[in-house]
Each structure stands twice: as structure tokens, then as C-alpha cells.
Design brief:
The complex is a heterodimer of chains A (about 160) and B (about 375). By secondary structure, chain A is of the alpha+beta class. Chain A has one domain. Chain A has helices spanning about 1-5, 10-15, 40-45, 70-75; strands at about 25-30, 50, 60, 80-85, 90-100, 110-115, 120-130, 140-145, 155. Chain A starts with a helix and ends with a strand. Chain B folds into two domains: about 1-120 and about 250-360, 3-Layer(bba) Sandwich (FAD/NAD(P)-binding domain); about 120-250, FAD/NAD(P)-binding domain, CATH 3.50.50. The radius of gyration of chain B is 21 Å and the shape is globular. The N and C termini of chain B lie far apart (about 50 Å). In chain B, strand 5 and strand 6 form a beta hairpin. The longest helix of chain B has 18 residues, at about 300-320. Chain B has helices spanning about 15-25, 60-75, 135-145, 160-170, 190-200, 255-260, 300-320, 325-340, 350-355; strands at about 1-10, 30, 80, 85-90, 95-100, 105-115, 120, 135, 155, 175-180, 205, 210-215, 220-225, 240, 245-250, 250-255, 265-270, 275, 290. Classes of the chains: A alpha+beta (about 160), B alpha/beta (about 375). Chains A and B meet through helix 1 and helix 3 of A and helix 5 of B. The structure holds flavin-adenine dinucleotide (FAD) and iron/sulfur cluster (SF4) (2 copies). One iron/sulfur cluster (SF4) binds near residues 30, 41, 78, 81 and 82 of chain A. One iron/sulfur cluster binds near residues 47 and 62 of chain A.
């Protein structure tokens, strides 16, 4: 339970996803369920695709028509609560925020991790980007198995 | 004795922001900071901040400190900064005693803004004085300011934002966080921070606290136990965790000792962190020309400390005859910003606390 151990329920998770046809293009998923005073996701989106409004305590709502999956909100969210995901023919491609050094490398096979912190499989790092604009939050582009759509959340390097 | 217009005690976000607006208004100020650099709590916050863009949300705390410091350095002839200097005495005629490298200095000010922040609360349990038991702030200072690891493993007590954030920073530094304990039945801080830890494999144990620490010379293990509704330990639920450091993050209490010296009216308001000065809407205490801003008048956030700093700087400038050219506009803007920051469920404590402080607690 979210307020007991920090793990959202499947319904909560799904409530943040668009219907599957949207996912042919990358879309931002905002896992931010609470009324907290925060709005950088909304103010940083170059496409005006995240709505919070005047009261910054309102949780974000993504307009999936407008969202291009550019990933800007991913590294601007102080809660590391946003990722993007796209459905490809044979896999999913996630862009996730990552702040642990050393970063994994392109091509590296890492463990796929769920919201409970458990290993749920393996996945491949397709790209690691860390530009100045990202202000020390790396973006990892990760290739993940289709069936992990609502499970995958981050990666853990193998020791 | 040197006589100044405005003396600001504490160079954290509140103090720096007050100096900035005072300088903008044309008023000279002196910031007195006991640490070797200004920035307050921000100098050890390596994470991106919450809030709205106006208070530098998504910028890392360490960088917000730089922005605020540069804002006052832009007025070299209006703002003077004295570091490694502690205000140790405050007297009713607005005389201050400063301690600077074993030297006592007396100064006098027309107005004073106290922005001393807050200090960490500690927790009572058996052997809580064993080496290896730290406050969360100390651990953060060790790691993020001095680059020293506190231990190999740690258990955090307290799941408020500070406990959650410091746990995350410990993991970033390579320390294994074995668990976060929370006495209340639910997590205290933002769930986004909790989720961030959980996915890294950290268990947050609610209705649980530390009962006893054990170790010969330093901490070797802790005994934890479940708590019932009344926060009493439930017999038979004890468990042992082998760990060489325990980090306590159970809240902050305002640093108000200087206000007691001038016998300012004080009130104990739990929602605000403990004993706080009674203030009017202009952040003035019961002693004329002594103002407060930031965590010292109620433990909140850097975002609100910054706005309170601006606000009090604006008020003091006007009081001393340096009315800011945009006084009315800014006054309204700062009030609106504070209200917005405090309007959600996480601002409820502050809202209730301020009501209680003003004696309006029966209004709702
Ligand atoms: C781990 C952690 C995470 C946080 N995360 C966030 C966040 O994400 N967003 C957010 O908005 N806020 C956050 N905060 C809160 C924020 O840091 C504080 O609310 C803010 O720093 C308060 O500002 P202040 O100026 O009132 O006090 P402080 O920052 O505490 O500054 C007070 C200054 O006064 C000095 N001082 C005290 N007594 C004296 C004296 N007698 N003489 C001279 N100098 C003195 C102190 O040395 C200090 O530099 C966090 C805090 C912590 C600990
Ligand atoms: S991914 Fe890009 S377009 Fe989509 S919400 Fe985030 S910032 Fe906006
Ligand atoms: S920036 Fe992140 S934490 Fe803040 S409101 Fe947006 S999604 Fe939530």
C-alpha cells in the first residue's frame, strides 16, 4: 500500500497510463498520486502536456494527445516519479531517471526491478544520456520485455 | 558600539532572502552566520527541491544556496556578511552580543530579523548515546559537505521527508540502508520519496520504532518493536537488526533561545515544531522591531522560508523608511505564495499551527 510501504496498487498504476493505442509513441507516465506542493513537471514541459493549474498541490494530469514523450519532465521531476514508455513490436522502451553512479553503460544487461524493489527479469540499456540541462539526473533508455508494462520501474546493475 | 539599521541573525534561505529585499529597498543589513559559510540547511541538500518555480523548485538545494547568495552579493555595498560569528546574546534595547573567534563584540540595531532555523529533535531509548547513533542532519553534513561516509550500513528512524531523502542520499553515497522505521501507522513524507526508496529495495516499517541500541564501544545492533495505537511497544514483537549506524530523523524544533532572552511572548504549538514566538501578520514578535522568518517561527520548508524572508525584509525596510518601490505588489505576491504553498494536505500542520498561534483554533 502506497502510504504503508511506498508501493502503489495495480489500479493506481494503471490509472496513470493511457489506453494502449497511445503507446505506439512514447508517453509520459506520472506516478505522483498525492496532493503535494510541487509543479516542475508541468512548468518544464515544452509541449504544455502536463496540467497542474493554479493550486500547485493538485496532482499532475498528462494530456496524451499533446505529450511527445520527449523526456524533459522525467529529469525535471524532483520526486523521480515520471518515466516514458513506448510499445515497439517486440519490446517496450522506457526512459527512466537514474541518479546512482557509476551509471550503467550502453548495451549493458541489467536487472529489471519492480516497485517493490524485486528483480523481475533482465533488460538492456540502449542509451545513457546526461547533458548539462539534465542537472545530474541521468536518463536511461531501457529495452524491456512486453509483459512488464505495469511492473517495470527501474534497473539495478549486476554485481 | 557599532549601530546598524538591520541585523539578520542566520544566513539560511530566510536570512539571505530578507537581506535581498532589504537591499532592493535601499536598506543596509548585516547577516550574522555561525557557520563558516552562508546557505543554512541548503548547503547539504543535494536533491532537487519541491515547490513551484518561484521558489526554485527542481533546482538542487546546493544550487539554490548559490542563487540566494549571489542575489545578496549583487549588493556589496548594502549587505555585509559575517561568518563564523554566533549571536550569543540579545537584549531588549536591540543590543546583540556576538562571539567571533573567542572575541565578544557588542552591536546595536534599529531592527532585527531572527532567522536561526531549527535544530533536530532526538529520541529517548536505551543506549541512545552509543557512537554510531547520529542525527540525520549530522549524517548529511558528513556525507554531502565533507564527503565522509558515516558507516557501511544504516537504519533510519523517521519516514518524514528528511528521513526519506537522507536515506536516498545514503544509498547514493554507497551506504546500505537496511530499513526505515516509522512509529506512525503510515509514512510521514511524500510518497514519491517513499516509492523511490522502496524500488531500491528499502523496506519502510510503519508502526515500528527502535527500542534499544546495543554495542560494546560503538553501535552493533538495534532492537526494534511494533507499536500499538497508543504508541506503546507490543510485547513479543521485538526483532534484532545488526547495523553499525542508526540515523534519527524525528523532526525539528525551532531555535528560539535568543527570543527567550528578550522575553518575547512564546507559545508551545506542536504543529509548528514546539516553542515558537507569537507574531503578528507582519512577522513581528511582541518586542517591537524584532522580526522572525523561516523555520525559527514554525518548521516548514525552504520554499516558505525564502518567501517569509522576502516578506520580513519588505516589512522592515518600510518600517525603517525605505519603502520598496513595488511594496504593495510584492506584499500581496508574497502572501499569495505562502498561502499557495500551505494550501495542500501537507500544509495542514502549518495552517493549524498558525491558527493555534494566533488563538483562532476554534474557528473551524
Ligand atoms: C534533508 C532535508 C531535506 C529538505 N528538503 C527540502 C525540500 O525538498 N524543499 C524545501 O522547500 N525544503 C526542504 N528542506 C527544508 C529546508 O532546508 C529548511 O526549511 C530551510 O533551510 C529553513 O530555512 P531557514 O533559513 O529558516 O533556516 P536554516 O536553513 O536552518 O538556516 C539558519 C541559519 O542560521 C544560523 N544560525 C542559527 N543560530 C545562529 C546564531 N545564534 N548566530 C548566528 N547564526 C545562527 C545557522 O547556522 C543556519 O545557517 C529540507 C531540509 C532537510 C534537512
Ligand atoms: S515527455 Fe515531454 S511532452 Fe511528454 S509530458 Fe513530459 S515533457 Fe511534456
Ligand atoms: S514534478 Fe514530479 S513530484 Fe512534482 S508534481 Fe510533477 S510528477 Fe509530482
Amino acid at each position: 500500500m502506497l502510504n504503508k510501504n511506498g508501493v502503489p496498487s495495480l489500479e493506481e498504476i494503471k490509472s496513470r497510463f493511457p489506453s494502449e493505442e497511445f503507446l505506439n509513441k512514447p508517453k509520459a507516465i506520472t506516478e505522483c498520486y498525492e496532493n503535494i506542493p510541487c509543479n516542475p513537471c508541468s512548468t518544464s514541459c515544452p509541449f504544455d502536456a502536463i496540467y497542474i493549474g493554479e493550486d500547485i498541490n493538485t496532482p499532475p494530469v498528462v494530456d496524451f494527445e499533446k505529450c511527445t514523450g520527449c523526456g524533459v519532465c522525467v529529469y525535471n521531476c524532483p520526486g523521480l516519479a515520471i518515466f516514458t514508455v513506448q510499445k515497439k513490436e517486440d519490446c517496450l522502451v522506457f526512459k527512466i531517471p537514474y541518479e546512482l553512479v557509476p551509471y550503467p553503460e550502453k548495451g549493458e544487461i541489467v536487472n529489471a526491478i519492480n516497485r517493490n524493489g524485486d528483480i523481475i527479469g533482465e533488460c538492456e540499456i540502449e542509451k545513457v544520456s546526461i547533458t548539462n540541462r539534465q542537472d545530474r539526473t541521468a536518463l536511461l533508455q531501457v529495452k524491456v520485455a512486453q509483459e512488464l508494462l505495469y511492473e517495470f520501474i527501474t534497473v539495478r546493475r549486476k554485481l | 558600539m557599532r549601530e546598524l539599521d538591520l541585523v539578520i541573525i542566520g544566513g539560511g534561505p530566510a536570512g539571505l532572502s530578507a537581506a535581498k529585499i532589504a537591499a532592493e529597498s535601499g536598506l543596509n543589513s548585516l547577516i550574522i552566520e555561525r557557520d563558516y559559510k552562508v546557505g543554512g540547511q541548503l548547503v547539504k541538500q543535494t536533491h532537487m527541491f519541491f515547490g513551484s518555480e518561484k521558489q526554485y523548485a527542481k533546482t538542487r538545494g546546493i544550487d539554490i544556496a548559490k542563487i540566494l547568495v549571489n542575489d545578496v552579493l549583487a549588493y556589496p555595498d548594502k549587505v555585509e556578511i559575517m561568518t563564523e560569528t554566533t549571536v550569543v546574546g540579545l537584549y531588549k534595547d536591540n543590543v546583540l552580543t556576538l562571539l567571533q573567534k573567542e572575541k565578544y563584540i557588542k552591536i546595536k540595531a534599529k531592527a532585527i530579523i531572527i532567522a536561526t532555523g531549527a535544530s533536530e529533535k532526538f529520541l529517548a531509548f536505551e543506549n541512545n548515546d552509543l557512537p554510531g547513533i547520529y542525527g540525520a542532519g549530522a549524517v548529511q553534513t558528513l556525507m554531502n559537505v565533507h564527503g565522509v561516509l558515516p558507516s557501511e550500513e544504516v537504519v533510519m528512524v523517521g519516514s518524514g521527508n528528511i528521513g526519506l531523502i537522507v536515506s536516498y542520499q545514503l544509498i547514493q553515497a554507497g551506504v546500505k540502508v537496511k530499513a526505515v522505521l516509522e512509529a506512525a501507522p503510515t509514512i510521514g513524507g511524500y510518497k514519491v520519496h517513499a516509492s523511490k526508496l522502496k524500488r531500491l529495495g528499502v523496506d519502510i516499517l510503519t508502526s515500528t520504532s527502535v527500542k534499544r541500541a546495543e554495542g560494546k564501544d560503538t553501535l552493533e545492533k538495534i532492537i526494534i518493536a511494533k507499536l500499538d495505537k497508543n504508541w506503546d511497544y507490543i510485547p513479543g514483537t521485538e526483532e534484532e537488526i545488526i547495523v553499525d549506524a542508526l540515523c534519527i530523523s524525528v523532526g525539528l524544533s525551532p531555535l528560539t533561545s535568543l527570543l527567550s532572552m528578550v522575553e518575547a511572548d512564546m507559545k508551545f504549538v506542536n504543529y509548528l515544531g514546539g516553542l515558537v514566538p507569537v507574531i503578528n501578520h507582519q512577522h513581528e514578535t511582541s518586542i517591537k522591531n524584532i522580526f522572525v522568518a523561516g523555520d525559527v517561527c514554525g518548521v516548514e520548508e525552504a520554499s516558505s522560508a525564502i518567501v517569509e524572508g522576502y516578506f520580513s525584509g519588505l516589512i522592515v525596510a518600510e518600517r525603517l523608511g525605505y519603502k520598496h518601490p513595488n511594496h504593495e505588489e510584492l506584499y500581496q505576491d508574497f502572501e499569495a505564495q505562502l498561502e499557495n504553498l500551505r494550501s495542500g494536505p501537507f500544509g495542514e500542520k502549518t495552517r493549524l499551527g498558525l491558527k493555534e498561534l494566533r488563538g483562532e483554533n476554534n474557528a473551524e
